[in-house]
Amino acid sequence: MKITHRIQKDICIVSINGKITAEEELKVRTYIFGLLHIYKHKTVVIDFEKTSDMNSIGIEAIMLLHRKFQQERIKLAACQLNRHISRIFEITRLDHMIPVFRTEACALASLS
Q1: What is the pLDDT of residue 112?
Q2: DSSP for residue 72
Q3: Distance (Å, rounded) from C-alpha 73 to C-alpha 93?
Q4: For residues 65-103, b (16+ Cβ closer than 10 Å) or e, as one string?
Q5: What does pLDDT average to in each consecutive run of 10 residues of the chain (112 residues)?
Q6: Quick check: is 37 in a domain?
Q7: Residue 32 falls inside a structural domain
Q8: What's the CATH number where 77 sits?
Q9: Could you give the 3-state DSSP secondary structure of residue 90?
Q10: Tell me, what's the pLDDT at 9?
C-alpha cells in the first residue's frame, strides 16, 4: 500500500493506493495523524480511487480517524470510492458519518 498527500485550496487530500488491511492500518492512521500536526489543516479528504480493498481493521481505522477529527473539529470527507469500497461504506454506515463525494472536484467545491 502506498499513501500520498497534497494540499489544494487549503484542503489536505490523502490518496491511498492498495488495500487497507491489518498490516497497513497503523500506517494509514499514523500518516494521516502526522499530517495534522505538520500542516494544521481543518479539512482532510481521503481519495479512495486506487483503494482496492478494506477489511474490518481498515474500517476501524477510518472510524478512529473520524472520531479523532470530530474531537479536534477537523472535517473529514471521502471521494472517488470504487464500487467495492462504496459498498463497504454503505454496509458499515460510514457514508452516514463521513461525507462522500463522487469526484475530488466535487469534494473541493463543497468543502472550500
Answers
A1: 85
A2: T
A3: 21
A4: beeebeeeebebbbbbbeeebbebbeebebeebbebbee
A5: 92 95 87 82 93 93 92 94 96 96 96 89
A6: yes
A7: yes
A8: 3.30.750.24
A9: helix
A10: 83
pLDDT value at position 84? 95
Indicate the pTM of the whole model: 0.92
Q: Which domain holds residue 37?
A: 12-111
Domain annotation covers residue 28: yes
Q: What 3-state class would DSSP assign to 34?
A: helix
In angstroms, the CA 8 to CA 95 distance is 23
Rg (CA), the chain: 13
**pLDDT value for 26:** 86
Is residue 7, in this structure, part of any structural domain at all? no
Q: Number of structural domains, the chain?
A: 1
Spatial separation of the C-alpha atoms in residues 84 and 36, rounded to whole Å: 28
C-alpha distances out from residue 3 to 47, 87, 96, 100, 101, Å: 10, 22, 24, 19, 19
